[in-house]
Structures are given as structure tokens and as C-alpha cells.
Amino acid sequence: MAAEKMRVEEEINATSASSLHQPLDETALIQELVAQFLAHDGYVETARAFGDEVRAESRALQNGQDSRFKDLGAEEDLDAVNRQRIRAAILDGEVDKALKHTNAYYSQVLQDKPQIYFRLRCRKFIEMIRRCSELHTSSSEKRGISMNGHSSDIYDDVFEHDMELDDQVNSSDDWDQMETEEADISMKYQNLLQETLEYGQELQLEFREDGRREVKKALEETFSLLAYEDPKTSVVAHLLEPSGRVPVAEELNSAILVSLGKSSSAAIERLYQQTETLIHDISEDGGAGAFINVRSDFLT
């Protein structure tokens, strides 16, 4: 079986891709796919640097001749920058900033795609709860440090009679500073908690008449975070993970691309999906595809 798998892999490696997208050869095709992926996801500076490197390498190998590598146009460049700003804002948990940029540059997208608008609104609520949880944890840690420090001072007063006066003053100053920091964090927590609850009420009012099953389920799951004093340790803690921002960012980016008349997915992503489908088809009834796993054999 291992020998058959090796034979199939050798056959794949020996197959030329030069005829897939003429006049590009295999290397140039791969470079185009990478560049298009970077531009598609809005990594403008990286795409530009990659293009410069490809052209420099091409000139070195072809006696000063430029490659056919295509630059982003001015309009594409601007769109890519705007999309990257929106994407970066979501990945940083700054949903309000993402909404502001989207409405400024692509105002029609959220009107045409209400499900994305809903997901952004829910994500903002999750991010607010996440910050509340972080402040609550920080406040608890400060309180624990303060109590430990206070106990230590009492111990020193009883058993360390030779303590210098200036040390006592410094200890008192430290204690006062910790109390002040704890009060500040506690105040920020209370204010943010109030804002979060008010926002949650707005969210519920806005979508309570929405009959879609997925909307009701998402609201129930999102609001369940409020049932726990520390949602980070609850059964719905996965909702607070930063990784949850990624699908929201990708869905909005795809919707913006479609609104611009472009594909919602990068060419290399479509190529991967088509390859997976083809492998699945030719693996039926024990065909050669049964020996190949695209992800584990070629992507890891």
C-alpha cells in the first residue's frame, strides 16, 4: 500500500502544470496565485513586496528582462487597503471601527447582506463581554495582591520591630497605590458592564421580531454568556475566543468583493476546493485518489 501511494505521488510530481494557464509556466502560475491571494485578502504591502521580489529575481535570471508579473491597479490598490482596514479592525475586536469603515467605503454591502450585519452586531456584544471578563479578572487579581500585601505589613509590624521608618512610609504608599488602581479597575468594570447590558437590550430589541432560526439560535447562545460570573470558564467560553473573529472578517471581505464584481474567494482557494472534489471523485471504488490526502500530503 505504501509503495502504491509513493507511485501515485511520483506521478503527480512528474506532471507538468505549464499548460494550465498559458503562457505562464508552473513557477509563474504559482507566483500569480500567491500574489492574487495576498491582494484578495487585502495584504497590500505584502503583495507589493512579493511582486518586487519576483521581478528582481526574474531580471537576475533573464539578463535584465522584466517578468510578466502584474501590479495591482490604483483602484484595486485602494480597495485592498480599505478591505484590509476593515478586516484588521474585526480581527482586533474593534467591531465599531469595522462598521464605520464599511459604511464609509461600501455602504450598500450591509444593506444587501443583513446576515453579516447581524453577525457583526453579535460579535460586538461578545467583544464587550470579553472585555468585561478581562477587567473582572484583573480586578480580582489586584484585590488578591492588595490583601497579600496588607497581611505582610501586619506580619512585619509584629515581628520586624527594627523596620526603618522610610520603609514603613513606602509600604503605606504602595498600599494606597494598589487601592487606587483597584478602585479604578472596578469603576471601569462597572461602567463597561452597564454599557454591555444596554447594548444587549438594544440588540435584543432590534432582532426580537426576526423569525429566522439561525438568528434566534445565535442570540440565545450569545446571551447565555451573561449567565456566568466568569464566562471564560463556562461551557460557552469558546464564543470569546479571538479565533471567532476570523469567519466574521472573511464573510464581510467576501461580500465586499462580490459587491465590486469580483470573486468571493481567492483563485488558490478555488483551486484547492476543486482538487479536493476531484480527488474524492477518483477515489471512489478504490481508485488512485484513495491514496492521496491534499491537506496532509501537500499542505502540511
Quick recap:
The protein is an all-alpha fold.
Describe the structure.
72% of the residues lie in helices and 0% in strands. The protein is mostly helical and 300 residues long. The longest helix has 46 residues, at 114-159. The protein is elongated and about 65 Å long. It starts with a helix and ends with a helix. Mean pLDDT is 78; it is low at 145-166.
Percent range of helical residues: over 70%
Report the total helices. 12
Distance between the termini: 21 Å
Radius of gyration: 28 Å
What value does the average pLDDT take? 78
Largest sheet: none
Order of helices and strands: HHHHHHHHHHHH
Low-confidence stretches: 145-166
Question: Which structural category fits the helices and strands?
Answer: mainly alpha
Overall strand count: 0
Percent of residues in β-strands: under 5%
What is the 3D shape? elongated
